[in-house]
């Protein structure tokens, strides 16, 4: 039987804070952007068969799901968020899985927490305080989330403000109109400006792929965002009609790979929106493992943005620990 | 518990894959239930028969799976007897009853899908992922689809019925799927079946036989004889078999063609391939790299239509091959029953040796051979995915079918060069073309000589779409409407006027001594024997007429310089005609070959114009031709006039069809258009009979030309003059040079050359005698399609169905799969 090659181990505790290896961006290369070709049918076919080609069961599934927890950006981005709601979310992010379940699975509780808590700009200080002293990072959306249609100056300012308020990661939305109009220069300029405004904070560029029309545009938008210095490219705000689909993920992963090949810079991938089940998480992890390799299956380079996913993962983990099927109410609400 | 913790911890840290074995329990249970020993299945029951027991082992680990019988000729006899016995009842059961049986079979395959999938993986070595997700669902789909054809048979194939007992020989690469491809249409058509599975992989066929009996399929309708090539050969040669369907190597296909020659058996052959996989610079290169994986590393490369010649546009060669090399690294080679295995075991050690000898030859030819660094299991027959770069185009790696996970890459510069390289092969099974440019894709699809062209996809199959080859990849189609014809024959009814029926044509003298015999004598030799009496009153032509052969648009003297003197029924010489020889045939085929591409590319409208013009010019000289017919044959003037009129009619009819014999869009079950295009076959060699010396030459020529074929016609041996004089009409009707070529002479002297010629794509033997059998034998060289009209068509009164039949002969179906999506 084959064994896969080994990879650096990583729990949440090993998240690197540093700007080491950050993608510095490259000048806009329009020839490259225009060379992009994506065949939707082929992408869908690959995405559809990928999960069926790999089987992750039993103890291995438990291990993978634990890893999934450490890749999770636990998210609340509702209009009715309050500080209390955000504090509860952050508490859940810090202690994502019941300690007895982790003990039963042989994993030290301190190794398993969410990668980040992701909140609205105004909730950044609350999240910062609630996560104080934990390895869970503070992530805030910004730049006119979710539409990205606030005046440019306002959007840049918003990025500065959330960083000043303690965000270690900023999930900005790109201007979809720039993509739809093929105005790559503007897209590059804007993302580069956000990146500059981020300073040491990491920049995740939300492409809102459900509003870009074609997979080729998805790839082009991802490419330009990376050229402009994004640390992550992210599928969706969670507010579009279509969110993180596997074909979109495949196309973004391949674009990340191509950018790495050409520039030597590793950019992260974040799936967000519509991820609800353990099965979804495993499918995305298989996709990333197969298309980008083991090096990407770490919180620095891959995130699952979700609000309800964790609850299902916990149930599955308890099942692996006890052999019995679990129930939602047995796990703390996030 | 401690082990649980260790494994969980390890998986958490490594995010690696674990062994994920599918249970062999069901398969083992079934094998044990049979004591791991099987007989043949015939007449609804197991029978040990006369052959010795042989073994089938799992190629992944050498485990003995079961013993089965190596069938003897006597076992084949018994099975054919069972099938023959069941035939009347199965025919009489009616199409609706047959439809229900097929539906039940489809259901049962689905219900036992895991059982079939595991058994197939064990017996063949293919990964369970593929047998589970591809082989078995497609097999079930095939029975569903053909349950439909069974139901619609009477309505959609009026005037046709099942050909009889079908002998079917299937390969080891997709044992159950190939069974389905063969058995479903046969049963739907009302045929009964004797199936000979491959000796490496008999098990799923045996399981299917058992299941068929359980579902109430009448005994004898489906029979299995296991064994090696000898059993297959006995089946091929059995006189009680009416149809042979074979999938396997071109070598064996050739033997089958030769062995069935002259027997009247229907034959379809799905043979080898060396299919091109064409990657343009404007393709989605990652998708194309994935396509290579699905094309040549699917089923360990043991796929007849694998895209093993990788043609990459030079501008992206380095980039593309780098992507491909990276992708190879993540292919998992392992035990077939592991659910995370991408490539399983090669079917047998002998096959591994064959693959390795190709690689060795490639190395000697200077190829760089690349395999991934990941390991393959030490036990069992495994070959890792292999990419060969830089092999010369003459290397066996590039020209021969390896039937293993080996792809050879070449480069091209322009679309035209891609076509040239793609077609630079004896085979023509499939092609895969990758580009995001729809203009380019739709330009390539018709240009590549292959039965299936996949645009931006590869190795997709469906029961609704025909699959089969061009050139030495065989003939006949499996799947879809086009596949049903392979198991149908015209109902032998007096009133049907069906193609191939006997008709009350002119009472021609016995054809047995016709070729070169009655009615003709050499110019220098003794005059005809005058045996054929008659009342013709004609005289020798008053001014010496010099008839010539017609080659490449020019009248040509026969190479040998001989003429034949034609005698009328009273033994009186009335004309001289050229006595063609093999060089004349060679020249005619060369001329046809030069005209082939342009005529095929001409629009149906333009071809129609020329056929109409031919009709116009023939009609203008109708009296003259009628007179000549009368002079030659002794027919009454009215009959001669009727034949001339029939020739004009045929030209009009096929002119009409030139722009109307449309293809189809098949309803395949995913988002794509599957275009079933009717393409011309190419160069057709036509041997005309004596029964209607003018209409019997003009009508088939019209049919051939209307669909874009070029032709070499060997005119009636006994009455060649009318067709030879038709050359004058051809000359005055804008028929491009080489599109029609006419040769006269002694059929025994000229037709074998035509039948054997490797650049002739198809033969129409409209005589049906011993020479026809010889022609079928000779056709095995390049496996050209052969149609022998053994009992003749009524050229004087072609029915609509006759015309449709001729149009099908004049075309072959290419299926072009075009997935779409913004």
Please explain how this structure is put together:
Chain A is of the alpha/beta class. In chain A, 45% of the residues lie in helices and 11% in strands. Chain A has one domain (22-330): Alpha-Beta Barrel (TIM Barrel), CATH 3.20.20.70. Chain A has helices at residues 30-35, 40-53, 58-70, 83-94, 99-105, 124-130, 152-164, 176-180, 184-198, 215-227, 246-263, 278-291, 309-322, and strands at residues 72-75, 116-119, 137-142, 169-173, 202-206, 232-234, 268-272, 302-306. Chain A has an 8-stranded parallel beta barrel with strand order 1-2-3-4-5-6-7-8, surrounded by 8 helices. In chain A, strand 5, helix 10 (215-227) and strand 6 (232-234) form a beta-alpha-beta unit. The longest helix of chain A has 18 residues, at 246-263. The termini of chain A are far apart. Chain B has 822 residues and is of the alpha/beta class. In chain B, 41% of the residues lie in helices and 18% in strands. The chains are: A alpha/beta (334), B alpha/beta (822). At the A-B interface, helix 2, helix 3 and helix 12 of A face helix 1 and helix 11 of B.
In terms of DSSP E residues, the strand content of chain A is 5-15%
Mean pLDDT of chain B: 93
Percent in helix of chain B = 40-55%
Q: Enter the CATH topology name of chain A.
A: TIM Barrel
Mean pLDDT across the residues of chain A is 93
* Shape descriptor of chain A: globular
Strand order in space, largest sheet of chain B: 14-15-16-13-12-17-18-33-27-26
User: What is the correct CATH architecture of chain A?
Assistant: Alpha-Beta Barrel
Number of helices of chain A: 13
Q: CATH homologous superfamily of chain A - what is it?
A: Aldolase class I
Write a short abstract of this structure.
The complex is a heterodimer of chains A (334) and B (822). Chain A is α/β, with parallel strands linked by helices and 334 residues long.
Question: What does the secondary structure layout of this molecule look like, with pairings?
Answer:
The complex is a heterodimer of chains A (334) and B (822).
Chain A: H1 30-35, H2 40-53, H3 58-70, E1 72-75, H4 83-94, H5 99-105, E2 116-119, H6 124-130, E3 137-142, H7 152-164, E4 169-173, H8 176-180, H9 184-198, E5 202-206, H10 215-227, E6 232-234, H11 246-263, E7 268-272, H12 278-291, E8 302-306, H13 309-322
Helix pairs in contact in A: 2-11, 3-12, 3-13, 5-13, 7-9, 9-10, 10-11, 11-12
Chain B: H1 2-14, H2 25-33, E1 37-38, E2 40-42, E3 45-47, E4 53-57, E5 64-69, H3 73-93, H4 95-111, H5 113-124, H6 128-156, E6 160-162, E7 165-169, H7 175-189, E8 192-196, H8 203-214, E9 222-224, H9 229-237, E10 243-247, H10 250-260, E11 266-270, E12 276-279, H11 285-296, E13 309-313, H12 317-329, H13 349-364, E14 368-370, E15 386-389, H14 396-399, E16 406-412, H15 415-422, E17 430-434, H16 438-447, E18 452-455, E19 474-475, H17 480-484, E20 488-490, E21 520-522, E22 549-551, E23 554-556, E24 563-567, E25 573-578, H18 582-601, H19 604-620, H20 622-633, H21 637-657, E26 664-666, E27 672-680, E28 683-687, H22 695-706, E29 710-714, H23 721-731, E30 740-743, H24 747-756, E31 762-765, H25 770-778, E32 785-788, H26 800-809, E33 811-819
Parallel strand pairs in B: 1-5, 7-8, 7-10, 8-9, 10-11, 12-13, 12-17, 13-16, 15-16, 17-18, 18-33, 28-29, 28-31, 29-30, 31-32
Antiparallel strand pairs in B: 2-3, 4-5, 6-20, 11-19, 14-15, 21-24, 22-23, 24-25, 26-27, 27-33
């Amino acid at each position: 039987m084959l064994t896969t090659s080994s990879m650096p181990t990583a729990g949440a505790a090993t998240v690197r804070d540093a700007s080491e290896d950050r993608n510095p961006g490259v000048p806009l290369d329009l020839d490259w952007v225009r060379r992009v070709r994506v065949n939707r049918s082929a992408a869908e076919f690959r995405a559809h068969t990928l999960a069926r080609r790999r089987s992750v069961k039993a103890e291995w599934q438990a291990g993978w799901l634990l890893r999934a927890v450490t890749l999770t950006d636990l998210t609340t981005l509702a209009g009715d968020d309050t500080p209390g709601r955000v504090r509860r979310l952050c508490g859940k992010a810090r202690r994502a899985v019941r300690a007895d379940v982790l003990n039963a699975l042989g994993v030290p509780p301190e190794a398993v927490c969410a990668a980040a808590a992701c909140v609205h700009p105004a909730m950044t200080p609350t999240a910062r305080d609630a996560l104080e002293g934990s390895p869970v990072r503070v992530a805030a959306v910004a730049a006119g989330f979710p539409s990205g249609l606030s005046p440019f100056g306002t959007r840049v300012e918003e990025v500065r403000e959330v960083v000043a308020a303690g965000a270690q990661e900023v999930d900005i939305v790109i201007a979809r109109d720039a993509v739809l109009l093929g105005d790559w220069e503007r897209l590059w300029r804007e993302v580069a400006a956000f990146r500059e405004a981020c300073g040491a904070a990491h920049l995740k560029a939300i492409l809102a792929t459900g509003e870009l029309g074609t997979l080729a545009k998805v790839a082009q938008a991802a490419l330009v965002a990376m050229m402009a210095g994004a640390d992550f490219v992210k599928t969706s705000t969670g507010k579009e009609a279509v969110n993180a689909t596997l074909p979109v993920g495949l196309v973004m992963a391949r674009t990340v790979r191509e950018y790495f090949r050409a520039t030597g810079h590793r950019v992260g991938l974040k799936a967000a929106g519509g991820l609800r089940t353990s099965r979804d998480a495993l499918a995305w992890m298989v996709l990333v493992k197969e298309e980008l390799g083991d090096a990407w299956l770490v919180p620095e380079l891959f995130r699952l943005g979700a609000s309800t996913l964790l609850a299902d993962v916990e149930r599955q983990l308890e099942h692996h620990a006890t052999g019995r099927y679990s129930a939602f109410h047995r796990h703390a609400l996030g | 518990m401690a082990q649980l913790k260790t494994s969980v911890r390890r998986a958490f840290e490594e995010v690696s894959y674990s062994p994920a074995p599918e249970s062999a329990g069901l398969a083992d249970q079934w094998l044990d239930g049979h004591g791991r020993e099987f007989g043949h299945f015939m007449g609804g029951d197991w029978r040990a028969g006369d052959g010795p027991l042989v073994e089938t082992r799992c190629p992944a680990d050498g485990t003995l799976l079961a013993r089965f019988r190596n069938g003897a000729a006597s076992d084949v006899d018994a099975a054919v007897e069972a099938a023959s016995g069941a035939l009347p009842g199965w025919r009489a059961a009616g199409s609706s009853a047959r439809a229900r049986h097929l539906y039940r079979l489809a259901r049962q395959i689905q219900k036992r899908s895991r059982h079939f999938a595991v058994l197939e993986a064990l017996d063949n070595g293919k990964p369970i992922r593929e047998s589970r997700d591809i082989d078995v669902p497609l097999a079930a789909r095939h029975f569903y689809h053909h349950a439909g054809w069974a139901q619609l048979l009477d309505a959609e194939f009026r005037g046709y019925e099942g050909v009889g007992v079908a002998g079917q020989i299937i390969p080891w690469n997709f044992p159950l799927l190939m069974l389905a491809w063969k058995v479903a249409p046969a049963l739907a058509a009302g045929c009964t079946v004797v199936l000979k599975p491959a000796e490496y992989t008999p098990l799923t066929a045996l399981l299917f036989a058992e299941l068929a009996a359980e579902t109430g399929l009448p005994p004898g309708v489906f029979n299995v004889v296991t064994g090696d090539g000898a059993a297959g050969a006995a089946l091929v040669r059995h006189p009680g078999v009416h149809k042979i369907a074979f999938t396997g190597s071109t070598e064996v296909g050739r033997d089958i063609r030769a062995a069935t020659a002259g027997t009247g058996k229907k034959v379809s052959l799905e043979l080898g391939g060396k299919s091109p996989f064409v990657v343009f610079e404007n393709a989605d290169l990652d998708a194309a790299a994935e396509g290579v994986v699905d094309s040549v590393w699917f089923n360990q490369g043991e796929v007849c239509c694998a895209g093993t010649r990788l043609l990459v546009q030079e501008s992206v060669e380095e980039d593309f091959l780098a992507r491909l090399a990276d992708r190879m690294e993540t292919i998992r080679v392992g035990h077939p029953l592991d659910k995370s295995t991408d490539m399983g075991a090669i079917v047998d050690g002998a096959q591994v040796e064959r693959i390795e000898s190709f690689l060795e030859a490639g190395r000697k030819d200077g190829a760089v051979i690349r395999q991934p660094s990941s390991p393959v299991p030490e036990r069992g027959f495994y070959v890792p995915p292999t990419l060969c770069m830089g092999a010369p185009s003459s290397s066996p790696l590039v020209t021969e079918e390896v039937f293993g996970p080996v792809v050879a890459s070449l480069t091209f510069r322009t679309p035209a060069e891609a076509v040239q390289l793609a077609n630079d092969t004896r085979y023509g099974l499939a092609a895969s073309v990758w580009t995001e440019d729809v203009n380019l894709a739709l330009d390539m699809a018709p240009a590549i000589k292959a039965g299936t062209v996949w645009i931006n996809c590869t190795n997709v199959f469906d029961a609704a779409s025909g699959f089969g080859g061009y050139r030495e990849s065989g003939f006949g189609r499996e799947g879809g409407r086009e596949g049903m014809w392979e198991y149908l024959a015209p109902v032998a009814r007096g009133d049907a006027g069906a193609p191939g029926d006997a008709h009350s044509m002119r009472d021609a003298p016995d054809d047995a001594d016709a070729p070169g015999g009655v009615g003709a004598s050499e110019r220098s030799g003794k005059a005809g024997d005058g045996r054929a009496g008659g009342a013709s009153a004609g005289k020798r032509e008053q001014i010496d007429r010099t008839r010539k052969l017609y080659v490449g648009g020019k009248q040509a003297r026969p190479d040998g310089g001989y003429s034949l003197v034609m005698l009328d029924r009273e033994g009186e010489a009335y004309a001289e005609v050229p006595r063609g020889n093999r060089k004349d045939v060679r020249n005619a085929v060369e001329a046809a070959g030069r005209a082939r591409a342009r005529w095929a590319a001409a629009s149906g409208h333009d071809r129609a114009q020329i056929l109409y013009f031919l009709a116009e010019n023939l009609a203008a000289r109708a009296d003259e031709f009628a007179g000549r017919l009368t002079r030659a044959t002794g027919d009454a003037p009215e009959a001669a006039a009727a034949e001339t009129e029939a020739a004009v009619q045929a030209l009009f009819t096929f002119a009409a069809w030139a722009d109307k014999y449309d293809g189809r869009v098949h309803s395949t079950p995913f988002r794509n258009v599957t275009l079933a295009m009717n393409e011309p076959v190419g160069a057709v060699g036509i041997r005309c009979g004596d029964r209607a010396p003018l209409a019997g030459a003009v009508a088939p020529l019209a049919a051939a030309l209307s669909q874009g074929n070029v032709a070499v016609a060997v005119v009636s041996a006994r009455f060649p003059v009318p067709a030879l004089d038709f050359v004058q009409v051809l000359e005055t009707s804008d028929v491009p040079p080489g599109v029609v070529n006419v040769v006269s002479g002694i059929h025994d002297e000229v037709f074998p050359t035509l039948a054997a010629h490797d650049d002739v794509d198809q033969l129409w033997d409209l005589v049906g005698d011993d020479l026809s059998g010889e022609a079928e034998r000779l056709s095995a060289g390049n496996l050209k399609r052969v149609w022998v009209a053994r009992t003749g068509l009524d050229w004087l009164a072609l029915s609509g169905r006759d015309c449709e039949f001729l149009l099908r002969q004049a075309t072959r179906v290419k299926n072009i799969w075009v997935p779409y999506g913004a």
